[in-house]
Amino acid sequence: MPLGSRGPWDKSESRYCGVETEFSDDVPGLLSYNISSGGFDFVVAPLMNPSYRPSSVGKDGRNSSVMPVAGSDLVLSPSEWSSRVVGKISSWIDLDSEDQTLRLDSETTLKQELAWASHLSLQACLLPAPKGASCANYARSINQVLQGLNNMQLWLRVPLVHVDDDPEEKSSSHPNDSWELWNSFRLLCEHHSQLSVALDISSSLPSPNSLCRWFGEPLRVAILNTDCFLTNTRGYPCLSKRHQNLVTGFFNHSIQIVISGKLLHKLHGGSSGSAALNSNNNAERVQTHPLRVYLDYVGYLYQKMDPLPEQERFELGYRDFLQSPLQPLMDNLEAQTYETFEKDTVKYLQYQMAIAKALTDRVPDDKVSDVTTVLMVVGAGRGPLVRASLQAAEETGRKLKVYAVEKNPNAVVTLHSLIKLEGWENTVTIVSSDMRHWDAPEKADILVSELLGSFGDNELSPECLDGAQRFLRQDGISIPTSYTSFIQPITATKLYNDVKAHKDLVHFETAYVVKMHSIAGLASSHPVFTFIHPQHSVEIDNRRYKKLEFEISRDTGSVMVHGFAGYFDAKLYKDVHLSIEPSTATPNMFSWFPIFFPLRKPICVKPGLPLEVHFWRCVGSTKVWYEWCVTSPCPSPIHNPNGRSYWVGL
Ligand SMILES: C[S@@+](CC[C@H](N)C(=O)[O-])C[C@H]1O[C@@H](n2cnc3c(N)ncnc32)[C@H](O)[C@@H]1O
């Protein structure tokens, strides 16, 4: 019984809530108690009797050829095993113990349990948290299993602690904090895509910055211990505001919740206390599942979330999905692509506002009947900027003559029919040409274009507008007037693993357009390249180089950088902007997703140390490309030399 629904579109994994249980050799009874009666969606249950130790098998007269597992595979149907049970690997195992017997017993048990879970086609197994400072032998065993595993996921349990919050942890032999523990383990397993994290949440939480890092990690499950719940005035459980926000963040990132622990609050219907055990043996004695109050509270938090805005709903399928950027100069866009752009009313309203301001600046109120402004839309597509220009003229009472220049012959067909349809024959002239080569019959007062990519200049707006500014008057206005690209270091395990899955260099040296969702921004974004139009220098040079330095704040802890998110901010005219840079983003504009520049090898950065990054925009006779690298804290290779993997054609 999922937590409820936030609407018919709601297919999120985080609708489901599980419960951690004790070992039971009556698995159907366990499911009936926790799922059918208890209301949970799945159980996280031990698969093997916790008293089992391989080294003592046979010594006590038990049959050494039979594993002490919970029932047989026949007790549930295959679909019940896979949808209702997450295997909990024995928590006593310690693969890095000094005690050789324990270490070997642990390895044998771990492998037996995982083999059994995989035989049952479970979707996931919960691995116990590493016990000491070192986790090398544990990681080695897991890594061996991962090499031949079916598609089962392994969730490494990690207690959410942070040294800054827990001075005792600092002096213990534990790795610095939870993230460091996870990071060592996943590095030893080479970022394996079937290894993910289960965070154990308790009553104290690390700093917000430190918590944010987890949203770029493959976090699948958050285990809420009952002791992290507060008690409301009526004795029922509730969560602190910070815990509530964290849980809402989990819901938003499709991270499932598992309730764990004993009843510490009032049970629905009256009784309270910790006497009720989370076991099917008590099914007859306890009417209501003892952890039901926690499930209900989590369900209440889920249902009180705001529904996703329509646009976000539409974009759900694009989340964290890598796309190749468009090449509108080299390729001709298709009708469908134009149609998607044209739905973005916010973008065109911003243009209309900018054009209206430029028109009023150019033609004083007392000259409106004498002056006709020549406006050229260069790269007119199917005409939305022509419409925005005519509306701006009407709004300001200025007279306009429009040229619509477009190099895509298919879009020109649409422009011709539009002119007839809208009755623009006397105002608009269509020109089927590349703006860089058009011999204009007169000069323009205003040049309007939208040739921007997610990284501003990456669809070659600078090169196109340099070609077009020949026919802009000396004092003419370009809309946009300028644009700047930005980058921000990010943790993005999913994007990194998707790039890695191609198993070649080319994909690591390519930039992708992506609706970023499961990522963590690690510092504020910094400006990279700026272009101003028209360019007044005698020798125009569109090559650029920028060295950037980011600092990871101390309360974040160490971070893993998988690459860079790229954005742009375009000044259309005066104070009218179009931006996808997070701090200045134009609300409700959806034409551009950010761009992702991956790193071939992720780089770990300690807090307080600078992350030094270099970006180049290179220009050749037939193409433009970017190269990028990191030089501190450690050098990366320079990505994409000579544009060998990724370039934009001129
Ligand atoms: C991103 S689309 C924008 C279309 C339209 N202005 C809009 O805002 O919906 C860019 C358009 O510019 C055109 N374009 C790109 N480079 C061009 C060039 N050098 N000369 C003429 N048109 C160009 C493309 O074919 C495409 O139709």
For the largest sheet, list the strands in their spatial order.
1-2-3-4-5-6-7-10
Please tally the β strands and state the result.
Answer: 26
> How big is the Rg?
30 Å
Residues in helices, as a percent range: 25-40%
CATH architecture label name of the largest domain: Alpha-Beta Barrel
Number of domains: 3
Low-pLDDT runs: 169-174, 271-286
CATH superfamily of the largest domain: Divalent-metal-dependent TIM barrel enzymes
End-to-end distance = 56 Å
Write down the overall mean pLDDT: 92
Largest sheet: 8 strands, parallel, barrel
**Helical region count?**
17
Question: How would you portray this structure in words?
Answer:
The protein is α/β, with parallel strands linked by helices. It has three domains: 13-55 and 68-308, Divalent-metal-dependent TIM barrel enzymes (TIM Barrel), CATH 3.20.20; 335-450, Vaccinia Virus protein VP39 (Rossmann fold), CATH 3.40.50.150; 483-649, Hnrnp arginine n-methyltransferase1. Helix content is 27%, strand content 25%. The strands form five sheets. The chain has an eight-stranded parallel barrel, surrounded by six helices. Strands 16, 17, 18, 19, 21, 22 and 23 form a seven-stranded antiparallel beta sheet that branches. The protein binds S-adenosylmethionine. S-adenosylmethionine (SAM) binds at residues 328-329, 333, 341-342, 378-381, 384-385, 405-408, 411, 434-436, 450-451, 464.
